[in-house]
Amino acid sequence: MRPTKPSSQDERLAEVFGAPLDQLLATPGPTRHLREALELRAFLAVAEDHVAWVRNRVHDRSSPDRPMDELAEDDLRMDARWMEAALTARRGYLTALDKLLRAEPPAEEHRPVQFTQPVISARAVPAGEQATPFVRGR
Hints:
about 140 residues; mainly alpha; 4 helices; about 55% helix
């Protein structure tokens, strides 16, 4: 299993697919829906990490403990651009993941399908022979 960053949708994935994230990640031969959901979740986790990273950098730069002379318009403007890009990416991944999860049936509907087929109990008789009926008790 590969290490993962947490995402805001981990619990929802567990609800939809009926298993905790670590089990979903370790699933051998996942379905197409699960594979796509896990890929989107990974991109979402990176985007959310970027949002947090920029947010923390802005908080650090604008901390009341810092000298006012260290504030730079260009740095804050660039941080605003980075934040916009990270939030746009996060919204895109959230939208795509939401659409995918809405298309996935609820976890309780994930059960193997068994088809029952009628069993033929008669046997063929070679041409020219007469079939003898089966009579119970003989």
